[in-house]
Amino acid sequence: MEAPLIAVVTGANRGIGRAICAALVQQLPGPLVLYAASRAGASPDLDNLTIPPTVSIRPAQLSLTDQASISALSARIQNENKGCDVLINNAGIYHFQENITAAQRQETLDVNYRGTLNICQAFLPIMHKGGRIVNISSQSGQLKYFHPRLQARFLHPDLKFSELNDLVDGYLRSAEQHNATASGWPPLAYFTSKAALNSATRILARENPHLLINCCCPGWVGTSLGAQAGQPPKSVEQGARIPLRLAIGEIEQISGRYWANDSVASVGYGKVQDW
Fold first, then answer.
1. Which residues cross the membrane (predicted)?
2. Structural domains in the chain, sorted by start
3. pTM for this structure?
C-alpha cells in the first residue's frame, strides 16, 4: 500500500488556506493525511467536495503566537505519522493602515515573521528528506519599498537569523520613535514582516539542503485580508495555485526562492522572481 503524503496547512479554515486544502484533496493522486490547522482548531468547510477514502482530514488547533501549540502540533504529527512531507504556512495577519498601535505592529511581526519561523523550526526535525515547506508571502515584501542600505542587509548571502532579528528589532525601534519611513522603511509594518519572511526562507533553505523551502506571493486574492486594499481581482482558488505548485508540483529542485506571477492579478502558476 502506498504511503500517504503527510501535509499541514495553517490558516486552513478560510480563504486561501481552505482553497489549498480543497485543491490537495482534489488533485493529489495518492493517499493523503491532511492536518488543517487554525486558531479555532475546527475542520475546514469542504462539504461541497467528495472526499476520497484515501484522504484523512485532521483538524488541529494552532496559534502562531503560542509556542506551546506549535510544539504540540509538531509532536502530534511525529507521533501519528513519524514525520511530515509538506508544510504550507498560510496563516497571517494584515493591518492595512499606516497609523497602527505598537501592539498591532508587534503582532504583525510576531505572526507573519516570528510565528511562521517558529513553525518552520519546530517542523524541521520531523520533515522527511525531500519534504517541502511553503511560506505564503506577499508582493508587499519586495525590497523596492526599502532603502538600498536595508535591501543589502536583507539580501546578504550569509545572513544569520540573529542578524535578521536585529534588523527587524531595528525597524520596531524606529517605528516606536516615529522615524521608520525617514530611515528607509516602508510605511506599513506588513511590508517589513513579509520581507523578513522572505529572508528567513532563504536562510532556512541554505541551512537545510535536504528540503525544498520556498516563499511566494499568491496574488491579490478575494479574502477578508486582501479586500482591505480594494476589490481583489483573483479568487481564492486562483490564489492557491502557486502555493500548491510549490507544495506538490514540479519546481526542478529549486529552493530558497521567491515565486510570483508578473502581476498580482495574473492567474498563472508562478515563477522565480527577484524580490
1. none
2. 5-96+111-144+191-273 (3.40.50.720)
3. 0.95
